[in-house]
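Hello,

Following up on my earlier ticket. Below are the two sequence lines again, exactly as submitted.
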Amino acid sequence: MRVGIVVFPGSNCDRDCARAVAEVSGRPAAWIWHKDRDLGGADLVIVPGGFSYGDYLRCGAIARFSPVMEEVVAFARRGGPVIGICNGFQILTEAGLLPGALMRNVGLKFICQDVHLSVGDTGSPLLGGYRPGQVVRMPVAHADGRFHADAETLSRIEGEGRVAFRYCDAEGRVGGPSNPNGSLAAIAGIVSPGGNVLGMMPHPERAAEAILGGTDGRALFVAALSRAA
Amino acid sequence: MKARVYVTLRQGVLDPQGRAVLHALSSLGFDQVRDARIGKYVELEIADGPRDEAEKAVREMARRLLANPVIEDFRVEIPGEGEAR
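Thanks for your patience. The regenerated structure is below:
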């Protein structure tokens, strides 16, 4: 089983993700340089967080046209598992693998804090380590995390059970003040129709070991790595 | 020749930056301002050639990269002869 982590100029969560992968699987992840034209035989691709291309124009807009993204898109269309975290989520929406867009936080501030998330009932194997309705805690760190989609797209995402995570409070109450960035329907993460592509603003890799202050993100890597095995 | 691309937020898309500017203008005493929306302006220098081809190409650039159709609309202007450049 091989895990490939895409590295763009400006990625800064690539090593955190690699650490989580190695911790969970005992095997190192491989780097996939943004100029590469193949995925090095990866069975699971992670598009990590950061500020690819300085967030110029729009977050993820330029990274989306990196040579490697053609391969990532083709891999995902074949059903290959792809996880986009934070800037990775933004890149996957810009690439058209996931619907909607991530816009400037409603409060205009960069938010760096732990959030609670209510896990959706997606049936995605990538979320197989969680129960639907389970409340998990992990950090967010973004200025542009407000999920937006038009009404039709939102009702399709919700109708198809593709909401992976919603912001909630510690008791699992969704929305209201627990929605840190004004995301539509408190959406923090979604999956593709086949469930093989997951995009999320929160950082599971920053909550994958007790020493990081939380372990709720670990189950995501465990499930993703067992699926890709 | 120059091409100008105006990228604006689609109707109904919340614009917190515009709202902050609206509030700032209001606190400066400009009470007549009813709304403010922030967009982007991209100026391109294009190799000389037929205008219609240039416009077609710039529209394609806007569609693929300069604007995100999920949240943004765009308008292309290519000033003709005699207009301000």
